[in-house]
Amino acid sequence: MLPNPTLDQLQVFLTVAETGSFSAASRALNRAQSVVSYTIANLEAQLEVPLFERSGARQPKLTEAGKAMLEDARRILGDLQVMRARVKSLKEGLEAEVSVAISVMVPSKAVVDVLHEFREMFPSVSLNLNVGELGMVMDLVMSGKATIGIGGAVLKQDDSVVTERIGHSFMMPVAAPNHPLAGLDRSLTLGDVRDEVQLVVTDASGLTKGRDFNVLSYKTWRVSDITTKHQLIKAGLGWGGLPASLIHDDLLSGALVHLDLDAYEQGEYPIYSMRQLANPPGPAATWMIDAFRTRLTYCPSQADFHAQIAELREPAIPLAAE
């Protein structure tokens, strides 16, 4: 017959191993020492291996088999604690899982900070995260595949979706430093960019079908995601708009340069929280919306962002020799 130890036996075994003696374990568990000894003996009989060396030692010492079993016992009892916490949370109304769709326009630092704190605040709640561009966020919320959405323009008016502006971001037209547009060293006109390849992200959601945003060139390369667009622009294969938060370090290092192009609309891009009216978020999802609102409040304006980049790129003034 296969061994079938009980959770109680494993708990007693773990307590004896951690306290160092049967008497200390009996006090910790508030049980008679004889009961502790009997439980361990039954566990050893179940497993058909000795867990402690008892002869010639004042304190029980784990055998090699006992050391191996100790890790298994810790893991099994740890999983039990996770299950108990999840059941307690469910009874209190906490979600078992939060599914969230986040736009690439949301600054990555804000995303990491929120998710780091979310893990600490709600350890029993699973997370299903989708990151995308354009209409993907609203599409996932409308279809019920995401509990909440963070980001994206409201591309379709729908009374079944509740939206609230919680912050902003903005796009910047950029190119690699060796790109022909970067070498003009002046304000650019439509005529300058018309015949240059512009990299454009295609909206997989279909909500923006037939609509283009800030597409100014006659030649376009369409890609599926912002990451590919970012890499191709850095490689000098074209120019295009990218979220400011995504290219902060590239602008500082000189890997990308900002294009002074008045025809490219660079106003603030609103970031919204989205949810279905018929499916209000639970405590964890509500907390996440509030956390994003708090962090996005401190996102710089476009003018402040440019000033910050310019200041950080200024070379340090050397100290005069004494």
From TrEMBL:
Ranges for domain HTH lysR-type: 5-63
Pfam families to which the protein is assigned, alphabetical: HTH_1 (PF00126), LysR_substrate (PF03466)
Coiled-coil regions listed in the entry: none
Swiss-Prot/TrEMBL keywords: DNA-binding, Transcription, Transcription regulation
rRNA-binding recorded as keyword: no
GO molecular function terms listed in the Swiss-Prot or TrEMBL record: DNA binding
Superkingdom of the source species: Bacteria
InterPro entries, alphabetized: LysR_HTH_N (IPR000847), LysR_subst-bd (IPR005119), WH-like_DNA-bd_sf (IPR036388), WH_DNA-bd_sf (IPR036390)
Family: Belongs to the LysR transcriptional regulatory family.
Entries under PANTHER family matching the protein: HTH-TYPE TRANSCRIPTIONAL REGULATOR (PTHR30126), LYSR FAMILY TRANSCRIPTIONAL REGULATOR (PTHR30126:SF91)
Function: Transcriptional regulator of the ttuABCDE tartrate utilization operon.
Protein name (database record): HTH-type transcriptional regulator TtuA
Organism: Rhizobium leguminosarum bv. trifolii (strain WSM2304)
